[in-house]
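In this notebook, the sequence line spells out the residues, with the fold written below as integer tokens. This is how one looks.
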Amino acid sequence: MMKPFGNDGVDLEDGKLEREREKTIRSSRSFRIHNQALVAGLAYCVSSCSMILVNKFVLSSYDFNAGISLMLYQNFVSVIIVSILSFMGIVSTEPLTWRLVKVWLPVNFIFVGMLITSLFSLKYINVAMVTVLKNVTNVITAVGEMYLFSKHHDNKVWAALFLMIISAISGGITDLSFHAVGYAWQVINCFLTASYSLTLRRVMDTAKQVTKSGNLNEFSMVLLNNTLSLPLGLLLIFVFNEVDYLSTTPLLRMPIFWLVITFSGILGLAISFTSMWFLHQTGATTYSLVGSLNKIPLSIAGILLFKVPTSLENSASILFGLLAGVFFARAKLRDRSQS
């Protein structure tokens, strides 16, 4: 028995409406995903830039001469926040067992040294030059990967690394605010940062074996690193005799100063959160490229906000170094996709 013509028309119309509805849902979902990726990317860029600028502000504008104490307080803030979030069930963290601590302790020594030398160098060197000099870390890491893990890189990666070295040298030569102590701390920081990256790869697998879940997420690493850094940081405050300075400085009696350094501690934690969020929303390629491109506005902001004396030659060296960083990120990603 045939259906009336009118019903066929209704069915066809319903099918068309259904397809239109599905198309609208797909496009709105795609728009939502793009929006989330954009917000995540902006949050990551803002938090990473702000952290360096706020630290520079504390160390230079406030002339705070206790970098280890600043690191200790920032890590303490991170431990408190992550512990509260873990207690509320918002994030999951691994319990800190003695076995895990013993495995992680060598990495933590490097982690603390990396943070302290970063703050020491930032006090003396302008933000733009710090971002360029940090490129040297990539060179040391690449050489370390070659000797420790027998990893070979293609010619484009080595070309980018060579450009980074040239930009760092030319930037240092043309730096009108050159400070030998600051540069020395930054060189040490590059070696420690590369060592942290290389050591972390070896220790991560061992650390996962001694955790209850067999895994170690970003929040567990943040809690582990920052908790273990507290007793070591406290010891270093006495070794570097920051206690006398802390007992006499009027800065610790200023509520606004406490607000700024607490904000810097929150920003440090925000970098971990936003980097995870952005990486989840996009992927390694976009994350790596945005991280490299992010150094360009950071360098410009550092020069303008802190009124850094510069020359055309130094500005060209900085720009050259930043572009070399972008070129390195692209070459490394291509190298990774081919291997």
